[in-house]
Backbone:
DNA sequence: ATGCTTCCCTACCGTAGAGTAAGAATCTGT
DNA sequence: ACAGATTCTTACTCTACGGTAGGGAAGCAT
């Protein structure tokens, strides 16, 4: 009589548990989240968590794994080889920021929790490194005359870092995806102080200036 | 007979304790660090920690406070009003990255630990926000014809984010300060794919490649 | 040489929370 | 309608660790 729902097949319950776990982890962090809290949130009893996932660590790892999966999937449209490299970068940017905009919990769990939790950082750093390598590739492909000695990987590190910082603001609801994508695209190609996008833009309208 | 050293004046012991605490916190994170571990590292007994700082939280807060202080101090040379804004930005960049290069533990504690520890994040976010505002100001001051509607704060967020990402690589010993500063300066003014610094550069010499 | 202050320790308490034992329902095939 | 598998719960155990009680020894006055 845990709450009403009962006797669901394992596969379903597992997802429910992960949903609850991601929620609570993203709210309170790994250490300040108790298994009881997750169980309660999932309207289930604690031993179920241990039956399906073996331990708190494994449960958290499962969260990272599923959310990381989703994260990578959200970026695959950017891999479309039909697009010009620079367009790919634009798509990647929008996919990335769009993913954070929705799925804020995933973002919080993956980046603000997992990355700082020794023992899980490596697992996330993998997806991150792939993102960086992808970015480095796109930068390299779309640069006409690369200055000799240019380290595209470090450039990608910087750009991804900028993206993550901006993503945090998106997750905080302070700016919207389009504006952020514009900013980062300009950052990549013209520098911060450079003019904005040369073509269209402002087409949307002149209104507020901030999102919310 | 805790280890040999004995009966030091309070002010000294307090610093010892903070040194030890910063070390251990930066290695293991807040939650995976026990007060016993810190006491042992400081060659002191646990009740001393509680006598001088009242609790684990307060001790951690003291760490953040001291390291944050040092962090801000390291950036003050950039405030020199005699410098042109763009030079100020360059100095700020080098001060920031230089600080991370030495004081890696401070960096880890402040950013990788405190920022992800709910309850302390706000305290650090303060210093961070000031850094962002400072950067935004410098950007604004040194931009000739600001495109109307340009949000310098968000730009600063992006640039600082890039700086933090690069700083992590510095802390990891993967690149050196000068190279990172060049990269970020170029990022700010010309964009990632832009040419490197037009003037001197490579003037330093080809030596070691690492600092320490 | 006696009190007062400062510094410091050994030994303990209390509890939050990870993990488990034991078994009760419910479903599925035959 | 019975056996076996699957889902699920209540009610525990046990340990790590934050925090404390109580006292001891060293310096410094007068």
Residues:
């Amino acid at each position: 009589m845990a709450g009403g729902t009962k006797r669901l097949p394992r596969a379903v319950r597992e997802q429910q548990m992960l949903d609850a776990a991601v929620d609570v982890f993203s709210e309170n962090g790994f250490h300040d989240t108790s298994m009881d809290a997750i169980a309660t949130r999932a309207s289930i009893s604690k031993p179920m968590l241990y039956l399906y996932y073996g331990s708190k660590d494994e449960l958290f790892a499962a969260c990272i794994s599923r959310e990381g999966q989703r994260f990578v999937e959200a970026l695959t449209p950017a891999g479309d080889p039909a697009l010009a490299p620079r367009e790919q970068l634009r798509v990647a940017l929008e996919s990335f920021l769009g993913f954070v905009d929705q799925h804020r919990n995933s973002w919080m769990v993956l980046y603000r929790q997992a990355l700082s939790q020794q023992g899980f950082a490596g697992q996330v750093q993998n997806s991150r490194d792939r993102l960086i390598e992808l970015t480095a590739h796109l930068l390299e492909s779309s640069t006409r005359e690369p200055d000799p000695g240019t380290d595209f990987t470090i450039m990608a590190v910087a750009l991804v870092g900028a993206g993550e910082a901006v993503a945090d603001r998106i997750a905080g609801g302070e700016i919207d995806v389009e504006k952020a994508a514009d900013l980062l695209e300009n950052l990549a190609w013209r520098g911060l102080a450079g003019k904005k996008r040369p073509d269209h833009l402002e087409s949307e309208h002149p209104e507020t200036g901030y999102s919310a």
Remarks:
- DSSP finds nine helices and no strands in chain B.
- Confidence is low (pLDDT under 50) at residues 197-212 of chain B.
- Residues 1-2, 6-10, 13, 44-48, 51 of chain B lie near DNA strand C (CB under 10 Å from a C1').
- The two ends of chain B are 36 Å apart (CA to CA).
